[in-house]
Amino acid sequence: MSALRAIFMREARLAWAGGGGAAGPTAFFLAAITLAPLAIGPAADLLSAVGPGIMGFAALLSVLQSADRLFGDDHGDGTAELYLLSGVSPAWLVLAKVTGQALATLWPLPVIGCLGAMMYGVPVQPALMGALALLAAIPALSLIAGFAGALAAGIRRSGLLIALIATPMMVPVLIFAAGAGRSAFEGDERALANLLLTAAVSLGTIALAPFGIAAAIRSRLG
Amino acid sequence: MNAFLDMGGYAAFVWPTWGLSFAALAGLVVHAVLERRAAQTALRRLEEDEA
Amino acid sequence: MLSYFSNPQRFDQLARTLIPIFAVLALGLLAVGVYLSFFASPPDYQQGETIRIMYVHVPAAYMAMALYAALAAASFVYFVWRHALADAAAEVIAPIGAVFTVLALFTGSLWGKPMWGAWWEWDARMTSVLVLLLVYLGYMALRAALEDAQQAARTGAILAMAGIINLVIVKFSVDWWSSLHQPASVIRLDGPTIHSSQLWPLAIMALGYSFLAGWLILYRLRSQALRRRVRTLQRQREQAARAREEAVS
Asked: Which residues, other chains included, contact C10 with Cβ-Cβ below 8 Å and sequence gap of 6+?
């Protein structure tokens, strides 16, 4: 257990201090939601209608943006071999690793999601619902990004490949998380159902993805 | 005959669909045959070098 | 059965007998299918002559999904039993499946324009097929990016298996997503039940497509074996040349 805590702390500290922490995803998220209205046009009713969806979409992209770092660095310097030799269950190990990185880098996403939605003219209550759904989506998003990152670890220009692999896997969680904000905005009673489905996808991903990531790391060492 | 080609006014949708489908199927077959020939030539060249 | 085919020569012999049989069956069925589709089936009472698009669209969509199932099954066999043939099959199936997926999308679009009045409709089916195409492309891109053949095989197998779990959830989520916004009622593709005069051309065309895909897979598997032998020979040659150089210096 203490080994897991050590890995968790190492990841969090590395991401916090070495990788610029939350700055990368935050900056990307901000840039994306700044550009979207410039492309769509300033019409207030249009922006408030697309606001919850854009927040989910931009959050997804900002998770992908840093996905090549988590397992790519380990693959290059031999840390991955050491992890597998450490005797700690690999599935628990990668779960600790991804959680450490996600907590250190992705915590601003719900905050920006909420503020951004309000800047698009979405009322407070649906904006909060969207932020809550983003929070519930983070485990699924970061684990899927981790899975794609582990498969493509160390490949030159892996970012593009990771995006291509992760995109179809992120479809369900995007639908439910963005759907929560959208339904709340439209006064649809299915907002809560969407939120629960987001949480369900995250839980399912927590149960399955660590095994997939561990298998992916092992397959790239053979 | 003209009525047949006209497809009840939907000729612009029916014929391209069938044309596209058979072009794709033929493309797959041609690609498979060319791929096999290329592999055979490469193998023959290597084996001739050996001899 | 698996261990039976672990002998490559035995598989090659079987493929050699099956390939001409599949070729004849595919050509025959497609010829009969074309005849039935155009001459022996009436226009639909609702969709008119556009129903003839269905006879190539539905088989393409069915092959797109069936081939992904085959890809995942082959990947599972490779992952568990490490059968080289299963990996070769997975590698060969993926691009064929991707072509059928593209074909399903384009023919669906050509059917959608006269039926819905739009080239593209974000309905649950077309969206899932689009996601399926992305899954195929991701699989092929990953394999292409990995130079080491064994790494490509193992990593690809893991991705293909994860893909099938994902596609099931995608299907559910996309159905849910499109039900949030019920579009104005139009003629749905799955609308009226299929009349038996339409079922025959559809079934024969689908069978023809299946045998053609089977032919392609077997044929390309034999080429694959040749290519793998070329690669081993080349590697041996390079190693021999390097050894000679080292001996000289």
From this structure: C4
